[in-house]
Structure formats: structure tokens, C-alpha cells
Amino acid sequence: MTLVAGNKRTLYWGLQSAKGTPNTTPTKAFRVSDFTPNSVRQTLTLAETDASTQEPSDVVVGYQPGFTFKCYLRPTQAAFLFKGLLGTNADTGAGPYTHTQSASITTPYYTMFEVEPTVWCNRYDDCRITQIQLDGQVGGVIEATVTVEAIAFNGGATAPGSPVAASDLPYVYPEITVTRNAVNKGTCSQFSIVISRNGARAQGDNGFSSIDYVNGLFSIRGQLTKYAEDDVDRRQVDTGSGTGTVPTTAIYSETLAIKATRDANTSINIAVAAASYPTNVAAVDTSGNPLAEVLGFRSLPQSTLAGNVTVTVKDALATPES
Amino acid sequence: MTEQLSEQAAAAAVTVDAAWSFTTAPDVNSVQFGGDPHVVLEAGEMFTTSDPILAAELAENPYLVEVESAGSKPRKRGGKP
Question: Which DSSP category does A183 fall into?
């Protein structure tokens, strides 16, 4: 019996040309800090009598593979993740390359190998990235929580031997700028942003597997923690204007950009076209620390889906999958 | 793959009311979109579709230029449906 250390889990990803066509030659490998699979099989416990008083049987009523994983946001993997979530990607430049990404209704499918080296390999086919949450705060590393839904599951798969997991250093909070209405004041100490497709599995009379995962309501929500220096952000929440004195029907919105910059050739910028701030909580801090406001934000709908958010990634990779 | 898609789209265009063609802007290395199939267009490459929803989405992409259309048009770039 050979036991192994618990810190070896690696996720290997390959872009599929179409649904139902697995790509068994992955091009990206992710280190993870957490991996939580869904129950591959959906089961029910029967609700019926038993003359001998025993609990009824279980039945399998569907297959719903999927998983959530956490990883640090690395420059060489940012474009890959957000292309999968948003759907449209354009590559320009020649070292650095710029990947300009926007949301579209349909998004690509991936094959993902969950590898516990020498122990197991599970292959998930027809994966769609359905949500990415980025978190960052002063003194920390930028973390990504990625939610994925798959159509097919294969246990006992052959583990891929390559590529090597990315080793470039992840983005850290000092590399972050939060720019609101084109102004970066440098007073933001924490951010969280969740971009979600809010889709659903389409399950029909086609057997145990889902027909597809269909993207639904595109939404961006999150929060910013910033030091309070004036009443503008409170008045915009309460009145609809940063200079308002009485409540109005106006919904204040502004451009919001959360950017991580390593250097001139390495960055990721998440530009929300119109962020509104429904909430502002500025709790009393009896410890005497600087007064902080926690702004909740959401993205307002635009004339087109593609105009809702633009993610721009600069790196040394010709394509997001490189 | 793109050739296959073009052939499929061309074949479909015979039997449907409208087809739209898009090509990549000249300063773009490649553009990728869609899920099934996942389409990759190299610089200057053309893509034709008869799917009005996909065509409307593509019309919003600043890195694609609509070069030809037949029948009813997808909504204008940046416009409302």
C-alpha cells in the first residue's frame, strides 16, 4: 500500500471544438487550493412502505457532473478563465498579446481532467464555466473561485502527462487598482466581483445526462470596501446623486474598472460599463480604525450583452489556450 | 474546421431566408466565439451563418466586420434588438 501527500491535485484543461467532442490533449494545467465536485449522480430515496420496517431503496434519476475550484489568479491563466466564462475573445498584438473579451450568449466547452497523481483521474466532458468570483484584499493574493457544469463524467480516465502546471506568480493586492468613473483614488482596501451566467441544465427525456447547460441571466455583482472621506457615496445610494439632498427616482451608475497590473505587458482589466451601488454600509468601528464604507454594486443592463463588461488581458500568450 | 463551417453555412443559406457573413478586422490575429461549434477565425477569414441570433451577436463584435447579408439584417452594431 502506497499512500500519497494531499497537495498534488491538478486540473488539466482542453478547449473543445464542439459539444460532444472531448479534447484529450489539454493545454492548461491549474494548481488549486480547493476542489469541490458536485454529486455526479442525482439520487432519490424512495418514499414507500416496507413490511419489515426497513428504509426504502435509492434510485438514480440523473447525471449532473460539475465542480467548483479555487485557485490564485495567475497572469498566464486569466485570459483562459474569462474567455470560458464570457465566450468571445479577440487576440491582437505580438508579444505582448492583448486578449479582448466580451460576453456572448453561447460559450465554449472544455474537457477537464481532475488528476490526483498515481491515485485517480476523472475526466469531465462538455464543461462550461458558469461563474467566476474574484476576491482581493489588502495584504492578500487575488483568488478566483470558478464554478463549472459538465455534461459527461468518466472515472478511471488516463491522466494526461502535460502540460506542466503554471508557475508564474499570482496577482497580489498591491497590483490592483479600482477605478470608478475614471478616477482611482487608491482608497479601496477590498473587492469582490462575481460574474455569473446563471444558467440551468436542460434535462429532458433523453436519458440520464443533461442535454446541455444553457446560459441564463448574465449578472455581475460584488462589493468594494473603501475608506470614507466624504458623503458622496452615501448620498448616491440614498438620493440617486452624489450631490443629492432628497431621494429621487434616479439610479446612479458609473464605469467601474478593477485592474491587476504586473507590468506594461502583463495585466487584466475588468471594465464594467455601468455599475450601480444599491447599498452602502459604514459600520461604527469602536476600535478607532479608519472609517470604511462597504459598497455593494451590480452591473446595469446595456444595449447589448457584449457591452456589459469588457475584460482585457495582456500576456505573452498568442491565444488564451496557449 | 472553418472550411467545414463555411460549407455548412453555405449549404444552409440555400434553404433559409437570410445569411450573414463576417470577416475579421485586419489588425486582429484571431477571433474566437461560440460553443458548439467553437469558431476560430484567423486574420481576414470569413464566417457565414444563417443563425439570426448568432449573427446579431457577431454584429456587436468590434473585431468582426459584416461584409455581406441577404434577407433581413441582424440588428445594427451597438443597437437594440
Answer: B
